[in-house]
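Need residues for this backbone.
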């Protein structure tokens, strides 16, 4: 079995739904889909429905009323205008088309589903959500380069019948979102989006230099980019700006508690086979497990709450 692309493994930050596929669902499936959308939005997932019937019919057909913090947008109809749907119903997003053009640097997007896809791409990009973090569910949403979703990320709905009609039930739309919600609630690792030009993975340098290049810092606190197996003797360290120990020639930054260490003795794979990647766009340091199994994890220093750091890891193999 081929090793899956890391960008297609883990929970998604956003879900892109085909409006035609949603409209083809039966009443019971639509009600369940609405509850799934509300559940995903409650966990911070962004959801955009693109294409399909006009806004009144699309909203009436779906009936979802998410309360956030994630949002639901409908960008549907022949001349799609984005609407944000809240507990109070759909409201047009003022100036959204202009903002989308400024994000993409492209001319005004075309109408129909192509224009809806263009807006959805720009909207998610403005939130820092790249294509690798998007789960696309629906016919044809991964076709072309307007939304460059990687192989294995898009999940096609049941194909149309020979007469061209869409399926009456569309079970896969509901099934895929139910699985996504289950994985979010179970605390599965998020996806890694290896955006060209935004990631750093030092190669051919010594351990200490690598740890320095992968350092995370926020609010005056810095953490060296050491592996989870490394202790202070191997270069792991945490320091705070302006906090020193010693005096005179012996003065140095006072080492703080090392919060990055994990007991990895039960993991058979060698750490040398894992890959460390710093995402410069999000400020997250990733550890991607080796194909044969190993440790996958992420860590970051919160910019909004200085002094707060987060470490998440799971082992496989």
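Answer:
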């Amino acid at each position: 079995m081929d090793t899956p692309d890391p960008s297609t493994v883990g929970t998604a930050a956003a879900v892109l739904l085909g409006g035609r596929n949603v409209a083809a669902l039966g009443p019971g499936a639509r009600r369940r889909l609405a509850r799934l959308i509300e559940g995903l939005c409650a966990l911070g997932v962004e959801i955009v429905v693109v294409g399909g019937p006009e806004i009144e019919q699309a909203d009436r057909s779906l009936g979802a009323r998410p309360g956030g913090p994630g949002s639901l947008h409908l960008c549907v109809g022949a001349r799609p205008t984005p609407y944000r749907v809240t507990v109070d119903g759909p409201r047009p997003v003022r100036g959204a088309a202009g903002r989308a053009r400024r994000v993409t640097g492209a001319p005004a997007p075309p109408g129909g589903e192509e224009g809806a896809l263009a807006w959805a791409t720009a909207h998610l990009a403005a939130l820092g959500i790249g294509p690798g973090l998007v789960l696309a569910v629906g016919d044809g949403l991964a076709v072309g380069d307007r939304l460059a979703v990687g192989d294995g990320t898009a999940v096609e709905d049941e194909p149309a019948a020979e007469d061209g009609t869409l399926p009456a039930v569309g079970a896969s739309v509901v099934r895929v979102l139910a699985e996504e919600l289950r994985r979010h609630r179970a605390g599965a690792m998020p996806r890694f989006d290896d955006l060209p030009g935004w990631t750093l993975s030092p190669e051919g340098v010594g351990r200490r230099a690598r740890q320095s290049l992968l350092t995370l810092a926020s609010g005056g606190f810095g953490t060296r980019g050491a592996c989870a197996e490394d202790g202070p003797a191997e270069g792991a360290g945490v320091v705070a700006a302006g906090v020193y120990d010693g005096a005179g020639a012996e003065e140095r930054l006072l080492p703080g508690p090392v919060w990055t260490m994990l007991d990895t003795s039960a993991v058979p794979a060698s750490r040398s086979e894992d890959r460390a990647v710093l995402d410069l766009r999000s400020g997250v340091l990733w550890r991607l497990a080796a194909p044969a199994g190993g440790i996958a994890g992420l860590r970051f220093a919160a910019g909004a709450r200085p002094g707060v750091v987060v470490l998440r890891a799971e082992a496989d193999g």
